[in-house]
Amino acid sequence: MTVTAEPAVGKEAPPGATAPAPRRRTGRVRRIALPYLLLLPALLLELLVHLVPMVIGIVMSFKELTQFYIRDWGAAPWAGFDNYSLSVDFDAPIGKALLHSFFVTCAFTVLSVGLCWLLGTTAAVYMQENFRGRGFLRAVFLVPYALPVYAAVITWAFMFQRDNGLVNHVLHDQLGLTDSPSFWLIGDNSFVALLVVSVWKGWPFAFLIVMAGLQNIPKELYEAASIDGAGMIQQLRRITLPSLRPVNQVLVLVLFLWTFNDFNTPYVLFGKAAPEAADLISIHIYQSSFVTWNFGTGSAMSVLLLLFLLVVTGVYLVLTSRGRRAADA
């Protein structure tokens, strides 16, 4: 008589046995879905903080939204492209003021980004040498970047005061470089004051990024160059700058976007009404929206600024990618 043994219920499968197919599929789905679940809070915040307000701003740019419709802005009349036409009509006062603000912002951005990159790169290159106190100097250089923007700019606003500011005290009272104390927060000097503050708080970021990029350059390249008789300038041209090209491409783009869109610095330094010489486009759009209460025109200016930045960023990325491919070829 043959007895057939039935498998014991609940007994574990022997080692090396293949797991059931449904369990394998469930584990695979979990592995695929886990990154998206982790990104979900950031995506929701991005949607609520950036995308939804951006869509609302685009809709507002097509409406004749003034102070009379603040309570119910949805009831504002539809303006079509009138706000855009008004903004780019450079013969009219609004368009002429916007064009002037655009040129001021371009000049300010080019000077600020160039000086930040130059100071940051110079300091980072010199900080690669071993000398006593190097760590302390690195920490000191990063202080402007670590300070809160409002605290730093308010401090500079006090230093630029005409009668009791530190800048005039040094330039006029101590060094005698000026005939009389200068006005730094009004008039043409306001552009210089804004540029000084922007560079002061921006160059440590360039210093930090370039210093990190220098760590990836093999020291053997410099040693070989020294043996071949290359000086410091030749090493900088032939080794340092070419090796830092990918880092500098990202750094310049980030500095450009931050500087062109900078609102905190001119607002804290000058208040709601920036001088004509320092009328950046960010503060100009703020004045058009919240000072004159013409939100439709201000929204149209914001959309035009967004389109300009997208075009410039796209062209920059295309040119840098072509340059990178040409260098690798």
Describe this structure in words.
- The chain crosses the membrane at residues 33-62, 102-127, 139-159, 191-214, 242-260, 299-319.
- Residues 102-316 form the ABC transmembrane type-1 domain.
- It is found in: Cell membrane.
- It holds the Pfam family BPD_transp_1.
- Helices cover 69% and strands 0% of the residues.
- It has 329 residues and is an all-alpha fold.
- Helix 11 packs antiparallel against helix 14 and helix 13 packs antiparallel against helix 14 (295-328).
- The protein starts with 20 loop residues before the first helix and ends with a helix.
- Mean pLDDT is 86; it is low at 1-11.
Task: Describe the protein's topology.
Blueprint: H1 21-60, H2 82-87, H3 93-126, H4 134-141, H5 143-146, H6 149-159, H7 166-174, H8 189-214, H9 219-227, H10 232-243, H11 245-260, H12 264-270, H13 281-291, H14 295-328
Subcellular location: Cell membrane
Pfam families: BPD_transp_1 (PF00528)
Family: Belongs to the binding-protein-dependent transport system permease family.
- Indicate the low-confidence ranges by residue numbers: 1-11
Q: How would a textbook summarize the main sheet? A: none
Give me the secondary-structure category.
mainly alpha
Q: How much of the polypeptide forms β-strand, as a percent range?
A: under 5%
Total strands: 0
Described by its quaternary structure, the protein is single chain
Give, in order, the helices and strands. Answer: HHHHHHHHHHHHHH
Rg, nearest Å: 29 Å
Number of helices: 14
Mean pLDDT: 86
General shape: globular
Distance between the termini: 81 Å
* Helix fraction by DSSP (H/I, runs of at least 4): 55-70%
Membrane topology: Multi-pass membrane protein
Protein name: Sugar ABC transporter permease
Keywords: Cell membrane, Membrane, Transmembrane, Transmembrane helix, Transport
Main location: membrane
